[in-house]
């Protein structure tokens, strides 16, 4: 099996082995105001750990509406770091122990934290939402929750009616 997979925590599920004939280096990845790279080397197949300078945040890459956690980059045979070091940003960490605890936690009610594990929508929770931790509103933000799918359908019907006059 020559396939390695990036796991949910941003690490590889097995070790990458470079071809013996491959030689070359990637340049030192430039740290930014928020993200820093600590490298074991810069040769093909070497890796760098990726961390955010603030310890209450995760290093992530956001593409096409998804956010994924990444903790390392690798110098490839094309002499490029993958993922691209300039694509990293930092987001507030999820409070893992409060996900799927049957209470809507506003700091976890976002896509990166899987919408608090469904705790903020009655349809995903299976009962009335406990909003005791909410200072203001605790809206159901999960786009796949029945409340939002139903609202989306209603908005589409209104739009079609308005288009048809």
Automatic annotation (TrEMBL):
Which superkingdom is the protein from? Eukaryota
Say yes or no: keyword Repeat present. yes
* Limits of the LNR domain: 83-121
The record, for Gene3D superfamilies, names:
3.30.300.320
Q: Which Pfam families match?
A: Notch
Which keywords are on file for this protein?
Disulfide bond, Glycoprotein, Repeat
PANTHER family xref list: CHROMOSOME UNDETERMINED SCAFFOLD_33, WHOLE GENOME SHOTGUN SEQUENCE (PTHR46130:SF3), LAMGL DOMAIN-CONTAINING PROTEIN (PTHR46130)
What is the protein named?
Pappalysin-2-like
Provenance organism: Saccoglossus kowalevskii
């Amino acid at each position: 099996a020559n396939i390695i997979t990036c796991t949910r925590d941003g690490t590889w599920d097995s070790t990458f082995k470079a071809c013996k004939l491959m030689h070359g280096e990637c340049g030192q990845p430039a740290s930014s105001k928020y993200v820093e790279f600590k490298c074991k080397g810069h040769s093909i197949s070497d890796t760098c750990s990726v961390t955010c300078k603030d310890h209450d945040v995760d290093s992530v890459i956001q593409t096409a509406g998804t956010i994924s956690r990444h903790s390392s980059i690798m110098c490839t045979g094309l002499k490029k770091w993958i993922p691209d070091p300039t694509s990293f940003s930092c987001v507030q960490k999820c409070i893992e122990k409060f996900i799927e605890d049957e209470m809507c936690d506003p700091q976890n009610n976002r896509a990166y934290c899987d919408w608090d594990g469904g705790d903020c929508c009655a349809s995903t929770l299976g009962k009335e939402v406990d909003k005791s931790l909410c200072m203001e509103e605790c809206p159901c933000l999960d786009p796949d929750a029945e409340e939002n799918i139903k609202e989306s359908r209603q908005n589409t019907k209104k739009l079609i009616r308005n288009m048809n006059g």
